[in-house]
């Protein structure tokens, strides 16, 4: 299950980066902030997955 969660986190991070870039290019600060939030959320989830992996071994 860890690999699936990591893939979802990577997808969420990529989507966040895309939102951030589109917001940057269009001057939409709200979209840019939402992209940053999505990236931070994915990073936090990825950290949790890494901790879980340590305890599974």
Automatic annotation (TrEMBL):
InterPro entries given in the database record: CsbD, YjbJ_sf
Pfam families listed in its UniProt record: CsbD
Region called Disordered, residue ranges: 1-57
Residue ranges of every copy of the CsbD-like domain listed in the record: 5-56
Protein family per UniProt: Belongs to the UPF0337 (CsbD) family.
Protein name: CsbD family protein
Organism expressing this protein natively: Nocardioides anomalus
């Amino acid at each position: 299950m860890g690999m699936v969660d990591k893939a979802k986190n990577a997808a969420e991070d990529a989507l966040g980066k895309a939102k951030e870039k589109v917001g940057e290019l269009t001057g939409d600060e709200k979209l840019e902030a939402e992209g940053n939030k999505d990236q931070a959320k994915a990073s936090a989830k990825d950290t949790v997955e890494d901790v879980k992996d340590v305890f599974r071994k």
